[in-house]
């Protein structure tokens, strides 16, 4: 009898342990935003952060931990509203869907996009659009949720998490269409928070606003448990702040970082464990799923021939581009030197990356793109590939006609058109100039009779 009781006690102990481990005891909110059109690092220098391929691997790592995760997007997938941006918007929405994002909060750049594109994406993509204070009464139906509630049933006790999203009116530009209405954030939030605070376990606000505005919102609504915010925050790891017990945190810009907020669950009580922001560096491999999607994106740019559809600006005084080889007739020594520099290989770096049909990349890797007579595409403008002589010195047809006239003076400002903080953050004019400085040559001035 004693043995039987012992066996039964062991059995029930094991059973109770199995039940206790049948459910997770924590969940993680993963957040990103303000990509501003950055699908992947441009590749212009080593050690770049970010990209959807690394982000997929990061999220996949957490998904394999078997704890529930809720990836959410803060807003501003785009930087502008042209045709290339529309293709980016669709690519990024597809990427969010593949990564299991539950929502995307609309930022001011998102609502500037063609309403027909926004309508299509809101109804065909798995990621839901969120905004508590933006109303779009467009000719095309756009599905926008004022609040999104997610139930987590695999946490032992049912847990409800409510997501609200606002867009600050101070961020609106001149491109906002007349059929878009943006309400004052606190007025829009008030009825929802009053309704939700006793019905959900956690309220999360995606506040597409400045840090200062989000702090004021936190003071007005202490029932909000987490605020994801920030606009143009370059160093998000140093920007985490608190109002009372509410963390206010940003994932930075350009998709370079990703944020996580971990919560523990004890019965129906939620306890915040950590809030942190992590750089998407070389620690995370590029996922093949996203690499394939990025290749589809480049293919779409090629199919639509966007290179040839970019408007071309006229040059003053009848100027036109001639190509670097034309310069070699008189400046052979300089041309031979240039040919050995990285400037002369600029176009090939795009070909190797598969970006030679990307208008955003091509300008600094060719000569005169965006100007009449400048590079248009490889088939029509082979003489203008690479960062050639006229990239720095300007269109040279008049110089050929009259070599005695002053031409081609350049300085640090010319270099910084491409070697800017985004694509060449370590640029130092004096050091870089040494790599491309022309050899001296003796040229006699000539006169035309």
UniProtKB/TrEMBL annotation:
InterPro entries the UniProt entry points to: 5_nucleotidase/apyrase, Cyt_c-552/4, Metallo-depent_PP-like, Multihaem_cyt_sf
Cytochrome c-552/4 domain mapped to chain residues: 326-394
GO CC aspect terms: outer membrane-bounded periplasmic space
GO biological process annotation, one example: nucleotide catabolic process
Single GO MF descriptor: hydrolase activity
Protein's name in the database: Cytochrome c-552/4 domain-containing protein
Species of origin: Candidatus Brocadia carolinensis
Lineage, opening ranks: Bacteria, Pseudomonadati, Planctomycetota, Candidatus Brocadiia, Candidatus Brocadiales
């Amino acid at each position: 009898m004693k043995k039987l009781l012992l066996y039964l006690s062991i059995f029930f102990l094991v059973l109770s342990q199995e039940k206790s481990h049948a459910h997770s005891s924590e969940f993680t909110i993963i957040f990103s935003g303000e990509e501003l059109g950055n699908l992947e690092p441009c590749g212009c220098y080593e050690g770049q952060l970010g990209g959807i391929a690394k982000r997929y691997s990061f999220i996949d790592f957490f998904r394999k931990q078997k704890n529930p995760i809720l990836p959410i997007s803060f807003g501003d997938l785009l930087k502008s509203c042209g045709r290339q941006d529309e293709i980016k918007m669709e690519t990024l929405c597809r990427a969010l869907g593949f990564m299991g994002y539950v929502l995307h909060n609309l930022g001011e750049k998102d609502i500037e996009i063609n309403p027909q594109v926004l309508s299509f994406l809101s109804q065909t993509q798995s990621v839901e659009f969120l905004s508590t204070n933006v109303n779009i009464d467009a000719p095309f139906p756009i599905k926008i949720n004022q609040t999104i509630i997610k139930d987590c049933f695999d946490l032992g006790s049912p847990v409800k998490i409510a997501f609200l999203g606002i867009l600050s009116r101070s961020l609106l530009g001149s491109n906002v269409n007349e059929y878009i209405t943006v309400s004052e954030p606190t007025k829009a939030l008030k009825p929802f928070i009053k309704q939700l605070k006793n019905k959900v376990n956690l309220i999360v606000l995606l506040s597409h606003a400045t840090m200062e505005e989000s702090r004021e919102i936190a003071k007005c609504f202490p029932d909000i448990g987490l605020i994801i915010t920030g606009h143009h925050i370059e160093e998000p790891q140093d920007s985490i702040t608190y109002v009372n017990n509410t963390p206010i945190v940003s994932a930075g810009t350009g998709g370079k970082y990703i944020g996580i907020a971990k919560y523990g669950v004890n019965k129906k009580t939620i306890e915040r464990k950590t809030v942190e922001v992590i750089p998407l560096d070389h620690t995370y491999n590029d996922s093949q799923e996203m690499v394939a999607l990025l290749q589809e994106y480049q293919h779409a740019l090629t199919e639509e021939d966007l290179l040839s559809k970019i408007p071309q600006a006229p040059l003053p005084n009848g100027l036109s581009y001639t190509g670097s080889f034309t310069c070699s007739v008189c400046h052979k020594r300089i041309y031979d030197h240039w040919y050995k520099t990285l400037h002369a290989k600029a176009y090939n770096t795009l070909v190797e990356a598969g970006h030679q049909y990307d208008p955003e990349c091509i300008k600094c890797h060719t000569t005169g793109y965006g100007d009449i007579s400048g590079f248009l595409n490889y088939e029509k403008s082979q003489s203008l590939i690479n960062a050639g002589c006229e990239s720095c010195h300007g269109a040279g047809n008049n110089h050929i006609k009259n070599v005695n006239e002053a031409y081609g003076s350049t300085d640090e400002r010319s270099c910084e058109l491409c070697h800017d903080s985004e694509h060449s953050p370590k640029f130092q004019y004096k050091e870089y100039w040494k790599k491309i400085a022309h050899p001296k040559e003796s040229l006699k001035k000539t006169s035309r009779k």
